[in-house]
Write a structure and sequence with these properties.
Helix content is about 35%, strand content about 30%. It is α+β, with helices and mostly antiparallel strands and about 100 residues long.
């Protein structure tokens, strides 16, 4: 059984960026690139799996750039790089958490 703690709503706008709404007690609107939105989605999924005590988890992404960024040492020094670093940090000691490209 999954507990729903957070809700995410993502809209694509004309400039090919995402407007991200985090809904908990307040609504926060931010604009992210497509890659940043994909990384946020993966990061939140990893956090949710950890918080619910899951031991073996397969994450799937259709974003090859995000998938490949998780396996290299050269991480960009920008917002996307920060998100990738957070994902890598959470996955580091969890060998049974696997991110696959589909």
């Amino acid at each position: 059984m999954f507990r729903k703690k957070k809700s995410f709503i993502i809209f694509l706008n004309i400039e090919n960026h995402f407007t991200f709404c985090f809904v908990k007690n307040k609504i926060h609107l931010h604009v992210f690139t497509v890659l940043e939105a994909e990384a946020i989605d993966l990061l939140e999924a990893i956090k949710e799996a950890i918080s619910t005590g899951m031991q073996v988890v397969g994450f799937e992404t259709d974003c090859k750039t995000i998938h490949d960024a998780l396996s290299v040492n050269n991480i960009p020094q920008n917002e996307l790089g920060d998100l990738i670093s957070q994902c890598k940090s959470l996955l580091l000691n969890r060998p049974d958490f696997v991110v696959s490209y589909v």
